[in-house]
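Reopening: structure tokens for the GMT complex, inputs below.
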Amino acid sequence: MKIGINCFPTVGGSGIVATQLAIELAKKGHDIHLISYDTPFLLRTYRHPNITLDLVDIISYPLFKDIGAPYTILAGSKLARIAKESDLDLLHIHYAIPAGVSAYLAKQISGVPVAITAHGSDIHTLGVDPAYNPVISYVFDNIDGLSTVSEYMKREMEEKFSHNIEIEVLYNPIDVEKYKRIDTKLCDFRIQHEKNYVHVSNFRPVKNAPFIVEAFAEVVKEYPDTGLIMVGEGPERKKCEEVASKLGIRDNVTFQGVRVSITPIYNCASALLSASTNESFGLTIAESMSCEIPVIAPKVGGIPEVIDHEVNGYVYELGNRESLVKYMLELLDDPQRVRQMGAKGRQKVIDKFEAGKIADQYIKWYSKVLENL
Ligand code: GMT
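Re-run output (same inputs, fresh job):
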């Protein structure tokens, strides 16, 4: 097939999912046009002959200084042009806003069928907002395929959006060769503590990262030589530093910024910690499990579809710091339990989220969309 995949070029989230899918489809011999406004993060260190990268032309004008270049129009033109010039079978949009609208316009111009995968805040945060909902609902009613990344998201979409097509649930693809257990001697030289926890995110408020620092401070009272490794960058990273200093644990917390390879860092940890107030799937959760590191995360969104409580990790009531601390201590005190849960977590990822299997599911979905035109 010849598929146009549009995505954000971001270091995490839907951009990673779209690019990982593009790589898997390319490996299976499909012809992929990856369309974005910058080189997607994974393609900065990997290329495949079956993947063509097309960048949206950002043409601005002084009149737009307060609203920015109208990306929806610019992306719509690019998608329509590529659809025609490359004779695409399908346009597949990741994250419904704003490119879902661009793809709808491209479909009117070029006739190319359009499928959208909704990822998270495009639905549960932005899409439900009356400022976005009327247009996004209309787009969902007038395209050819609609999918999302968890049963939780499907329920949200069915409750809050009108749509006249079946919503497919396709979990996110995880590269189990990239995310696996390695000898922790290859771990990052800056990690000084014997035992560590890790948190990986974009530090947006939805990740609730300062809450993790507060819980970690409780653990340090009992185990002073424990580390918390925080990976990523974003609006609340500085607040995490401030909370760590205020609680007297700044020396126990290292901030690694954005990292290309986080497998060595996952492997240094006794657990990955999440405190998200919402999470449609949680890529770092599945990546950590693939590295045989258990995860402690809140029982929100799609997380209970990824973590099986007390089997390959723990889910706790959102905001319950005592419960988070209890599970953190359990894993710190019991390396055997870490290994047992870790092994079960990797098996779950191999069974349910392995990238090649997920790509095959997407190919079946594309075929179904094209058959039902
Ligand atoms: O970062 C993105 O591209 C989207 C971001 C978001 O805020 O919606 O992440 C979402 O998509 C990821 C890939 O499907 C999921 O793993 C994340 O759980 C989801 N984030 C949220 O729902 C908050």
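The mean pLDDT is 95. The chain is about 40% helix and 15% strand. Marking as resolved unless the reporter disagrees.
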